Sequence to fold (307 residues):
Amino acid sequence: MTPAPATAGTAGGAASAALRAAIAEDMRQIPAGFCEMGTPKSRYEADRDSPRRRVKLSGFQISAVTVSNRIFARFIEESGYVTTAGREGWSFVFHLFLAEPKVWLTHPAGTPWWRRVTGADWAHPEGPESDLAGREDHPVTHVSWHDAEAFAAFTGTSLPSEAQWEYAARGGLTRMKFPWGNDLTPAGRHGHNIWQGRFPDQNSAEDGFAGTAPVRAFSPNGYGLFNMTGNVWEWTADSFGPLPAAQHPPRPDPVSQVTGGSKVMRGGSHLCHDSYCGRYFVHSRSHNTAESSTGHIGFRVIGADTV
Fold:
Protein backbone atom coordinates (compact mmCIF):
# COMPACT_ATOMS: atom_id res chain seq x y z
CA MET A 1 0.00 0.00 0.00
CA THR A 2 1.26 3.46 -0.88
CA PRO A 3 1.29 5.74 2.18
CA ALA A 4 -0.89 8.81 2.07
CA PRO A 5 1.09 12.00 1.59
CA ALA A 6 2.41 13.25 4.91
CA THR A 7 5.02 15.56 6.29
CA ALA A 8 7.34 14.52 9.09
CA GLY A 9 5.39 14.16 12.29
CA THR A 10 1.94 14.35 10.70
CA ALA A 11 -0.40 11.58 9.59
CA GLY A 12 -1.91 12.12 6.17
CA GLY A 13 -5.49 11.18 5.29
CA ALA A 14 -7.54 8.75 7.36
CA ALA A 15 -7.34 5.07 8.20
CA SER A 16 -8.70 2.47 5.83
CA ALA A 17 -11.94 0.70 6.63
CA ALA A 18 -9.91 -2.47 7.25
CA LEU A 19 -7.66 -0.82 9.83
CA ARG A 20 -10.61 0.81 11.58
CA ALA A 21 -12.38 -2.54 11.66
CA ALA A 22 -9.33 -4.25 13.18
CA ILE A 23 -9.25 -1.64 15.94
CA ALA A 24 -13.01 -1.79 16.48
CA GLU A 25 -12.86 -5.57 16.85
CA ASP A 26 -10.86 -5.17 20.06
CA MET A 27 -13.13 -2.55 21.62
CA ARG A 28 -14.94 -3.46 24.84
CA GLN A 29 -17.95 -1.62 26.22
CA ILE A 30 -17.46 -0.12 29.66
CA PRO A 31 -20.77 0.58 31.45
CA ALA A 32 -21.58 3.94 33.00
CA GLY A 33 -20.88 4.04 36.72
CA PHE A 34 -18.83 5.42 39.57
CA CYS A 35 -15.13 5.09 40.27
CA GLU A 36 -13.12 5.74 43.40
CA MET A 37 -9.97 7.15 41.88
CA GLY A 38 -6.68 7.06 43.71
CA THR A 39 -5.42 5.48 46.92
CA PRO A 40 -5.86 6.32 50.62
CA LYS A 41 -2.17 7.14 51.04
CA SER A 42 0.45 7.89 48.39
CA ARG A 43 3.62 5.85 48.30
CA TYR A 44 5.24 8.60 46.23
CA GLU A 45 3.93 11.97 47.31
CA ALA A 46 4.90 13.60 44.01
CA ASP A 47 2.47 11.29 42.18
CA ARG A 48 -0.48 13.10 43.79
CA ASP A 49 -2.58 9.94 43.73
CA SER A 50 -4.29 10.33 47.12
CA PRO A 51 -6.69 10.56 48.78
CA ARG A 52 -9.42 8.63 47.04
CA ARG A 53 -12.19 10.61 45.40
CA ARG A 54 -15.42 9.42 43.79
CA VAL A 55 -16.11 10.35 40.16
CA LYS A 56 -18.89 9.49 37.72
CA LEU A 57 -18.22 8.07 34.24
CA SER A 58 -20.47 7.80 31.22
CA GLY A 59 -20.26 4.54 29.32
CA PHE A 60 -17.50 4.30 26.71
CA GLN A 61 -15.56 1.83 24.62
CA ILE A 62 -11.89 1.07 25.21
CA SER A 63 -9.54 -1.33 23.50
CA ALA A 64 -8.99 -4.63 25.25
CA VAL A 65 -5.29 -4.34 24.41
CA THR A 66 -2.59 -1.78 23.97
CA VAL A 67 -1.81 -0.90 20.37
CA SER A 68 0.43 -3.66 19.05
CA ASN A 69 3.42 -3.44 16.74
CA ARG A 70 1.27 -5.13 14.09
CA ILE A 71 -1.48 -2.49 14.24
CA PHE A 72 0.98 0.41 14.54
CA ALA A 73 2.83 -0.83 11.45
CA ARG A 74 -0.42 -0.63 9.49
CA PHE A 75 -0.91 2.93 10.72
CA ILE A 76 2.60 3.87 9.60
CA GLU A 77 2.11 2.23 6.20
CA GLU A 78 -1.21 3.95 5.53
CA SER A 79 -0.39 7.39 6.94
CA GLY A 80 3.28 7.93 6.13
CA TYR A 81 3.71 9.21 9.69
CA VAL A 82 7.20 9.60 11.15
CA THR A 83 7.42 9.14 14.90
CA THR A 84 9.21 11.47 17.29
CA ALA A 85 12.10 9.00 17.66
CA GLY A 86 12.26 8.62 13.88
CA ARG A 87 12.54 12.37 13.39
CA GLU A 88 15.01 12.92 16.20
CA GLY A 89 17.07 9.86 15.31
CA TRP A 90 17.27 8.25 18.75
CA SER A 91 15.33 6.93 21.74
CA PHE A 92 16.03 5.58 25.23
CA VAL A 93 16.71 1.83 25.56
CA PHE A 94 17.06 -0.11 28.82
CA HIS A 95 20.71 -1.14 29.27
CA LEU A 96 20.13 -4.90 29.66
CA PHE A 97 18.51 -5.05 26.22
CA LEU A 98 21.65 -3.76 24.50
CA ALA A 99 24.22 -6.17 23.09
CA GLU A 100 26.98 -3.68 23.93
CA PRO A 101 25.81 -1.25 26.64
CA LYS A 102 29.27 0.32 26.85
CA VAL A 103 28.83 1.67 23.33
CA TRP A 104 25.90 3.78 24.51
CA LEU A 105 26.93 5.74 27.58
CA THR A 106 24.72 8.83 27.40
CA HIS A 107 21.86 8.63 29.88
CA PRO A 108 19.49 10.90 31.80
CA ALA A 109 20.71 12.20 35.15
CA GLY A 110 20.06 9.71 37.92
CA THR A 111 18.95 6.84 35.66
CA PRO A 112 22.06 5.21 34.17
CA TRP A 113 20.03 2.18 33.11
CA TRP A 114 18.45 4.22 30.31
CA ARG A 115 20.79 4.71 27.35
CA ARG A 116 20.32 7.12 24.48
CA VAL A 117 20.61 4.90 21.39
CA THR A 118 20.96 6.33 17.91
CA GLY A 119 18.58 4.59 15.51
CA ALA A 120 16.25 3.20 18.18
CA ASP A 121 12.57 3.68 17.35
CA TRP A 122 9.29 1.76 17.32
CA ALA A 123 10.48 -0.57 14.54
CA HIS A 124 13.99 -0.98 15.99
CA PRO A 125 13.41 -1.25 19.76
CA GLU A 126 17.03 -1.93 20.68
CA GLY A 127 18.67 0.14 17.98
CA PRO A 128 19.27 -0.06 14.22
CA GLU A 129 20.34 -3.72 14.22
CA SER A 130 17.14 -4.86 15.94
CA ASP A 131 13.69 -5.52 14.50
CA LEU A 132 10.22 -6.69 15.48
CA ALA A 133 10.50 -10.33 14.37
CA GLY A 134 8.51 -12.40 16.83
CA ARG A 135 7.13 -9.30 18.54
CA GLU A 136 4.36 -8.36 16.13
CA ASP A 137 1.77 -8.87 18.86
CA HIS A 138 3.73 -7.10 21.59
CA PRO A 139 2.83 -3.51 22.47
CA VAL A 140 4.37 -0.83 20.33
CA THR A 141 6.98 1.15 22.28
CA HIS A 142 9.25 4.13 21.65
CA VAL A 143 6.12 6.17 20.96
CA SER A 144 5.71 9.69 22.32
CA TRP A 145 2.42 11.20 23.41
CA HIS A 146 2.39 13.08 20.12
CA ASP A 147 2.72 9.76 18.27
CA ALA A 148 -0.19 8.28 20.22
CA GLU A 149 -2.30 11.34 19.45
CA ALA A 150 -1.46 11.08 15.75
CA PHE A 151 -2.52 7.43 15.70
CA ALA A 152 -5.79 8.29 17.41
CA ALA A 153 -6.56 11.17 15.05
CA PHE A 154 -5.83 9.03 11.98
CA THR A 155 -7.96 6.08 13.17
CA GLY A 156 -10.93 8.04 14.53
CA THR A 157 -10.23 7.08 18.13
CA SER A 158 -8.94 8.99 21.18
CA LEU A 159 -6.64 8.54 24.11
CA PRO A 160 -8.59 7.79 27.30
CA SER A 161 -8.87 10.39 30.01
CA GLU A 162 -7.11 9.44 33.22
CA ALA A 163 -10.47 8.83 34.90
CA GLN A 164 -11.65 6.58 32.07
CA TRP A 165 -8.40 4.64 32.20
CA GLU A 166 -8.57 3.94 35.94
CA TYR A 167 -12.27 3.08 35.87
CA ALA A 168 -11.64 0.60 33.06
CA ALA A 169 -8.51 -0.80 34.72
CA ARG A 170 -10.43 -1.67 37.86
CA GLY A 171 -12.63 -4.01 35.87
CA GLY A 172 -15.69 -3.48 38.02
CA LEU A 173 -13.86 -3.96 41.33
CA THR A 174 -13.64 -1.26 44.00
CA ARG A 175 -10.84 -0.42 46.43
CA MET A 176 -8.51 -3.07 45.02
CA LYS A 177 -4.83 -2.70 44.15
CA PHE A 178 -4.81 -4.77 40.96
CA PRO A 179 -7.25 -5.50 38.16
CA TRP A 180 -7.95 -8.89 39.80
CA GLY A 181 -7.89 -8.03 43.53
CA ASN A 182 -5.36 -7.28 46.27
CA ASP A 183 -2.98 -10.27 46.10
CA LEU A 184 0.11 -9.63 43.96
CA THR A 185 0.40 -13.32 43.05
CA PRO A 186 -3.02 -14.94 43.49
CA ALA A 187 -2.73 -18.69 44.06
CA GLY A 188 1.02 -18.26 43.55
CA ARG A 189 0.63 -17.13 39.94
CA HIS A 190 1.83 -13.88 38.40
CA GLY A 191 -0.98 -11.65 37.20
CA HIS A 192 1.07 -9.20 35.18
CA ASN A 193 4.50 -8.44 33.73
CA ILE A 194 6.75 -6.56 36.16
CA TRP A 195 10.36 -6.88 37.34
CA GLN A 196 11.47 -9.75 39.57
CA GLY A 197 14.99 -9.85 40.94
CA ARG A 198 17.42 -7.04 41.71
CA PHE A 199 16.70 -3.84 39.83
CA PRO A 200 18.31 -2.66 37.57
CA ASP A 201 20.88 -5.38 36.94
CA GLN A 202 19.21 -8.77 37.42
CA ASN A 203 15.76 -9.77 36.25
CA SER A 204 14.77 -13.36 36.99
CA ALA A 205 11.73 -13.03 34.70
CA GLU A 206 9.69 -15.32 36.96
CA ASP A 207 6.53 -14.00 35.30
CA GLY A 208 7.79 -15.35 31.97
CA PHE A 209 9.01 -12.12 30.39
CA ALA A 210 12.25 -10.12 30.71
CA GLY A 211 10.96 -7.45 28.34
CA THR A 212 7.50 -6.76 26.98
CA ALA A 213 4.86 -9.46 26.86
CA PRO A 214 2.27 -9.98 24.11
CA VAL A 215 -0.71 -7.67 24.39
CA ARG A 216 -2.94 -10.59 25.42
CA ALA A 217 -0.59 -12.09 27.99
CA PHE A 218 -2.08 -12.97 31.39
CA SER A 219 -5.78 -13.04 32.22
CA PRO A 220 -8.07 -10.11 31.40
CA ASN A 221 -9.88 -8.12 34.05
CA GLY A 222 -13.61 -8.12 34.65
CA TYR A 223 -14.21 -5.91 31.63
CA GLY A 224 -12.14 -8.13 29.34
CA LEU A 225 -9.11 -5.81 29.27
CA PHE A 226 -5.56 -7.15 29.19
CA ASN A 227 -2.42 -5.81 30.90
CA MET A 228 -3.96 -2.83 32.62
CA THR A 229 -1.01 -2.97 35.01
CA GLY A 230 2.56 -3.89 34.12
CA ASN A 231 3.99 -4.50 30.64
CA VAL A 232 4.09 -0.89 29.36
CA TRP A 233 3.12 2.49 30.70
CA GLU A 234 0.14 3.88 28.81
CA TRP A 235 -0.30 7.48 27.71
CA THR A 236 -3.58 9.19 28.59
CA ALA A 237 -5.13 12.35 27.19
CA ASP A 238 -4.62 14.35 30.38
CA SER A 239 -1.85 16.69 31.42
CA PHE A 240 -0.35 15.93 34.82
CA GLY A 241 -1.79 17.70 37.82
CA PRO A 242 -3.98 16.91 40.82
CA LEU A 243 -6.66 14.26 40.55
CA PRO A 244 -10.21 15.59 40.09
CA ALA A 245 -11.39 17.48 43.14
CA ALA A 246 -13.78 15.61 45.43
CA GLN A 247 -17.30 16.94 45.34
CA HIS A 248 -20.90 15.91 45.95
CA PRO A 249 -22.49 14.79 43.75
CA PRO A 250 -19.41 13.19 42.16
CA ARG A 251 -17.82 15.05 39.29
CA PRO A 252 -18.99 13.59 35.93
CA ASP A 253 -16.45 12.56 33.27
CA PRO A 254 -13.59 14.60 34.74
CA VAL A 255 -10.60 15.64 32.67
CA SER A 256 -7.44 17.42 33.71
CA GLN A 257 -7.80 21.14 34.31
CA VAL A 258 -4.08 21.58 33.60
CA THR A 259 -3.07 22.71 30.13
CA GLY A 260 0.30 21.97 28.61
CA GLY A 261 3.07 20.45 30.68
CA SER A 262 3.80 16.76 31.00
CA LYS A 263 1.28 14.05 30.18
CA VAL A 264 -0.10 11.39 32.50
CA MET A 265 0.97 7.77 32.08
CA ARG A 266 -0.86 4.93 33.78
CA GLY A 267 -0.35 1.31 34.85
CA GLY A 268 3.39 0.83 35.31
CA SER A 269 5.62 -1.35 33.13
CA HIS A 270 7.76 -4.48 32.96
CA LEU A 271 10.52 -2.44 34.61
CA CYS A 272 8.54 -1.59 37.74
CA HIS A 273 9.96 -3.08 40.94
CA ASP A 274 9.11 -2.56 44.58
CA SER A 275 12.64 -1.37 45.38
CA TYR A 276 12.59 1.50 42.90
CA CYS A 277 9.29 2.12 41.13
CA GLY A 278 6.40 0.42 42.89
CA ARG A 279 3.86 1.88 40.48
CA TYR A 280 2.16 -1.24 39.14
CA PHE A 281 -1.26 -0.70 40.69
CA VAL A 282 -4.56 0.39 39.14
CA HIS A 283 -4.25 3.77 40.87
CA SER A 284 -0.60 4.32 39.90
CA ARG A 285 0.24 7.36 37.86
CA SER A 286 3.37 8.96 36.51
CA HIS A 287 4.10 11.54 33.86
CA ASN A 288 6.54 12.45 31.14
CA THR A 289 6.97 15.12 28.53
CA ALA A 290 4.87 14.74 25.40
CA GLU A 291 8.06 14.33 23.33
CA SER A 292 9.48 11.51 25.47
CA SER A 293 10.19 8.19 23.80
CA THR A 294 11.37 5.07 25.62
CA GLY A 295 11.21 1.31 25.37
CA HIS A 296 8.54 0.91 28.06
CA ILE A 297 5.77 3.35 27.06
CA GLY A 298 2.83 2.49 24.82
CA PHE A 299 -0.87 3.33 24.68
CA ARG A 300 -4.39 2.08 24.08
CA VAL A 301 -7.33 3.97 22.62
CA ILE A 302 -11.03 4.53 23.26
CA GLY A 303 -13.88 4.70 20.77
CA ALA A 304 -15.05 8.00 19.39
CA ASP A 305 -18.27 8.22 21.41
CA THR A 306 -19.41 7.84 25.00
CA VAL A 307 -22.86 6.39 25.74
